[in-house]
Structure formats: C-alpha cells, structure tokens
Specification:
Strand content: 35-45%
Number of domains: 2
Structural class: alpha+beta
Radius of gyration: 25 Å
CATH architecture of the largest domain: Beta Barrel
CATH class of the largest domain: Mainly Beta
Oligomer: single chain
CATH topology of the largest domain: Ribosomal Protein L25, Chain P
Strand order of the largest sheet: 1-3-2-6-5-4
Number of strands: 13
Low-confidence stretches: none
Largest sheet: 6 strands, mixed, barrel
Number of helices: 5
C-alpha cells in the first residue's frame, strides 16, 4: 500500500499519560481486528490528518506499529473534541482483504435540479449509504445525479442500485433526495384543511351553546 502511518505502542493507559501524549501532538488510538488482539497505540495528529486527506475516511492504508509489523487497516471510528476541533481517539480496524465488510459511504449530489430553478428546495435526506463488499472495493463516495428532478420528484435507493458497483444494504424505499415545493405553495395546499378544521370547531362551539 502506498500510504503508511507510523504508530507507537501505548504502555501507560492512565488518564494522565493520555493527556500528556495529546499535549505532545499525538492521538491515542486502538488497533483491533478479527484475527488480532486489541492493542493501544498512538499516532501523530499531523500525520493522521495527512493520511485521511490522502486515502479518505473509507480508504485502506498500512499502520506501521513501531517498525515491527504493518497492518492493513481502515478507520472505524474517530472521536473529536467539538470545542477544540481536535482528534481525541481513533479506532483502527485491521481488515481481511478476502472477506466482505460493511462500510458507510458518503453521498454526493451532482447537477442542478430543474425544480430548484422553479423555486423548489432540494432536500438531501441520506448523507451516507451502507455498502457490503471487499475492503479494496469500497467506493470513496456515491454520486447521485439530480439534474432531472422537478418539484415533487425524488430519488430512492432503488433508483441508484444498478449504477453502483457494490451491494447496497439499505432498503429500496429509502429516499436519498427530493425536491420540495416552495413554502408558499405548501401553505396554500394546507389552507383548505385548516379552514375545514376551523369550520368544524365553530360548529362544535355552536352545538355546545345550544
């Protein structure tokens, strides 16, 4: 693999030691997999960021632990401090290149919907789609073309299933994106119902008075 991230074993797992390595620019992490025991490690925050930018969050790369052994891994989970916007912990999962796994792939919308030009609003409902495939086949993203969507139109999982090269685990009926009518039209559509409700309430009021 082209990308290699260096990692050091973590022997001291006390909170004070964890805080110290964070101050030194490292991120505490854990390496685990189906065929290895969990191992606490640490990686430099700068090198980790470079690796993520290079391979993406679903990409595969080598984790070199103390120069002794390289593990083919992918990022399973990242914890971030929302105030400092810093990585606080990472889970690295060693993958078996011959076994299928589940992965969440980001969805990117392409094109401009005609319905948006008419005043409609593009509502992006699914930002990730779950796929099942070999680790080396995980797509970086799934592109969805919205250039044919008019007001009231939508794209569901069933509509893109045949165009994606890997198996999608989501249900066919799940909606990825839809173009909603302008707010004014929605309010006008609701007005008759509201008027009917007011009429019913008025009738009920008269009946109570009688």
């Amino acid at each position: 693999m082209a990308s290699v991230l260096q990692a050091n074993p973590r022997e001291d797992l006390r909170g004070s030691a964890t805080r110290r390595i964070r101050k030194e620019g490292y991120v505490p992490a854990v390496l685990y997999g189906n065929k290895i025991e969990s191992q606490p490690v640490a990686v430099t925050g700068i090198d980790f960021l470079k690796t993520v930018r290079e391979v993406g969050k679903n990409g595969l790369f080598s984790l070199d632990v103390a120069g002794k052994k390289k593990h083919q891994v992918m990022i399973h989970d990242i914890q971030i401090d929302p105030l400092k916007n810093e990585y606080t912990h990472i889970d690295f999962f060693e993958v078996d290149m011959t076994s299928e796994i589940d992965a969440n792939v980001p969805v990117r919308l392409n094109g401009e919907a005609p319905g948006e030009k008419e005043g409609g609003m593009v509502s992006h409902l699914m930002y990730e789609i779950t796929v099942r495939c070999l680790p080396g086949e995980i797509p970086e993203e799934i592109s969805v073309d919205v250039s044919n969507l008019n007001i009231g139109d939508s794209i569901q999982v069933a509509d893109i299933r045949s165009s994606v090269s890997v198996d999608i685990s989501n249900e066919d009926e799940e909606t990825i994106v839809t173009v909603q009518a302008p707010a004014a039209e929605v309010e006008n559509e609701q007005a008759p119902d509201e008027q009917a409700e007011e009429a019913e309430e008025a009738e009920e009021g008269k009946s109570e008075e009688e």
